[in-house]
């Protein structure tokens, strides 16, 4: 008969280094239960089942907490901490049986070790994602705000720590805790700040970039104060000057990382083929190096995750290393081990450890002074520049107050930022910035967005069709868009060139070469400027709108999120790119064109070297978007290799449905187009009258073999008989009713859906009498 095991360990309190601690005596064989529960033993007496139960419980409670907090604009980190509080001794763990089964002292040690391994890998990834030169690039504003934002709360807290012992009597534990509380409370850590900004979708906004740069400066300040000044302070207090050797060894450790580990990892990166995933041997070699750095940091008296973080900062960010590591570690590490780390922090919090008395009040005053100093340290310099050891010796009461205060401040700050700061407000403008309202003699300023190299041939062909000429030059702003992967901070920088083609075989190099060749081919008529934007897809539109606003673009060209195969079916679908397009459509400071490429505008059929004239058709139904499309096509009309057909589609009884103001604006532009087309064989004007939406569909199908590119406005009156019934089948509202129909696999020609600058300042789409007036009184583009 099997022996029943009822005792797995014994627990008792013993004097610790800083306070009274638990000592656990545990049997060495109590790891795997091997199914002994069938014989009547206690499954939770074994460490492996306890560990798995702990991880399952933490993940479930964390996700449930986040589900309820997400509508309140709270972060996953806050949810993980609150989940730890719920699981811990403040709530569930007050039940003795629950605490003994799931979180016994021996089991707590194991999950903390596992979680710390996950936290170390997480900090390494964050270090890889950080560009170590960001401090040099931060600028004077960010350096000053970051430095003062750390120094003032540190100084106020330090002043309180020096003053309080002379005013009231405090116990020895609190006196040891206060300096660490001051240091922790003065920090504005880069990972937390960037996570907050990314969640609020403002990481790549002006405020987001400033906050990212400021937080990394603050991190450097806090690390310096914690490591250097802390070591010197201990040496002075206890007259143990041997502690200063720790500083020397830390410097030696940094030198080892820079001159030994960094070159070794760079050599590993060179062995990764371009565009290929990292091999298993390379991944394991890097993990071993991370462990070595963590081991060295522990031996130098620093946390192991700190050594991994410094190693990560020493290696290059972005692909291929950063992206590959994130892909391999993110799901398991961030999804399972990291929540355990933050939940354990919540487990350590006991709300009932907070007692009414002088120690709690002193701790709370120090914490509040730190937040006041942090706010003043960032707010005052911002106005000047006209800008819109962890818990090792901290008492339970101090730790609880520090964590609760942080949760409260974070919980209030997130919704406030979300409510008060909207990057799109700066894109709103009273003056229309479009092709239609541009001066005829000014250059056409086009911002073209590139997500991948497949977008380049079609967009180049569209630029060539735009007819750059001496009297109508084109300024092209090429925005190379990349998803923020393998990096922590968003980037928007000019891609500086030196006036000649490059032989760099990278994606950016090939894109730059293609557009520079186009500029040289149209020398004197075309100017090209290159930009690189690295941002999350959910806020990538901010970079697009920022460049469009700063460069005064008349129109933004964005590729459609679907790509077609040679047989006309959808080959690739990018939902993230669709999200970008939808945001641009709503917030762009100029007109927008969504380019649906089906290959006719690519290399196989070019405006310059096609077998015959390149055929462009413009479908005009009426409204401001169709007028913008007509204005754009009128630039193309004089190109020697383009045949342009303009089709005015009207209902049979159009007089019944025409709005007088819109009719006058439509008729004026069409009359200008007809006058411009007189005597030109390559320009054709047609009027088509149809009864209903069926007639509209029939007309679109008749264009199948007569055009290579169809241009049409995005918005059309839904009450028009030409649209009735079509809107019910609208799959992509960002294309409008007609554009959505043309985006189906029933059509084989390319499409450019044009939207004039979105209405702002309360104007509605149908308020054409206010929106569509030319405020400058200048002639349109005809």
TrEMBL record:
<feature type="transmembrane region" description="Helical">
    <location>
        <begin position="281"/>
        <end position="301"/>
    </location>
</feature>
<feature type="transmembrane region" description="Helical">
    <location>
        <begin position="220"/>
        <end position="238"/>
    </location>
</feature>
<feature type="domain" description="Cation/H(+) antiporter C-terminal">
    <location>
        <begin position="616"/>
        <end position="756"/>
    </location>
</feature>
<keyword id="KW-0813">Transport</keyword>
<feature type="domain" description="Cation/H(+) antiporter central">
    <location>
        <begin position="473"/>
        <end position="603"/>
    </location>
</feature>
<dbReference type="Pfam" id="PF00999">
    <property type="entry name" value="Na_H_Exchanger"/>
</dbReference>
<feature type="transmembrane region" description="Helical">
    <location>
        <begin position="180"/>
        <end position="200"/>
    </location>
</feature>
<dbReference type="GO" id="GO:0016020">
    <property type="term" value="C:membrane"/>
</dbReference>
<dbReference type="InterPro" id="IPR050794">
    <property type="entry name" value="CPA2_transporter"/>
</dbReference>
<protein>
    <recommendedName>
        <fullName>Cation/H+ exchanger domain-containing protein</fullName>
    </recommendedName>
</protein>
<feature type="transmembrane region" description="Helical">
    <location>
        <begin position="364"/>
        <end position="387"/>
    </location>
</feature>
<dbReference type="Pfam" id="PF23256">
    <property type="entry name" value="CHX17_2nd"/>
</dbReference>
<dbReference type="Pfam" id="PF23259">
    <property type="entry name" value="CHX17_C"/>
</dbReference>
<dbReference type="InterPro" id="IPR006153">
    <property type="entry name" value="Cation/H_exchanger_TM"/>
</dbReference>
<dbReference type="InterPro" id="IPR057290">
    <property type="entry name" value="CHX17_C"/>
</dbReference>
<dbReference type="GO" id="GO:0006813">
    <property type="term" value="P:potassium ion transport"/>
</dbReference>
<keyword id="KW-0630">Potassium</keyword>
<feature type="transmembrane region" description="Helical">
    <location>
        <begin position="43"/>
        <end position="69"/>
    </location>
</feature>
<feature type="transmembrane region" description="Helical">
    <location>
        <begin position="76"/>
        <end position="93"/>
    </location>
</feature>
<dbReference type="InterPro" id="IPR038770">
    <property type="entry name" value="Na+/solute_symporter_sf"/>
</dbReference>
<keyword id="KW-0406">Ion transport</keyword>
<feature type="transmembrane region" description="Helical">
    <location>
        <begin position="142"/>
        <end position="168"/>
    </location>
</feature>
<feature type="transmembrane region" description="Helical">
    <location>
        <begin position="113"/>
        <end position="130"/>
    </location>
</feature>
<keyword id="KW-0812">Transmembrane</keyword>
<feature type="domain" description="Cation/H+ exchanger transmembrane">
    <location>
        <begin position="58"/>
        <end position="395"/>
    </location>
</feature>
<feature type="transmembrane region" description="Helical">
    <location>
        <begin position="399"/>
        <end position="417"/>
    </location>
</feature>
<dbReference type="InterPro" id="IPR057291">
    <property type="entry name" value="CHX17_2nd"/>
</dbReference>
<comment type="similarity">
    <text>Belongs to the monovalent cation:proton antiporter 2 (CPA2) transporter (TC 2.A.37) family. CHX (TC 2.A.37.4) subfamily.</text>
</comment>
<feature type="transmembrane region" description="Helical">
    <location>
        <begin position="244"/>
        <end position="269"/>
    </location>
</feature>
<keyword id="KW-0633">Potassium transport</keyword>
<keyword id="KW-1133">Transmembrane helix</keyword>
<keyword id="KW-0472">Membrane</keyword>
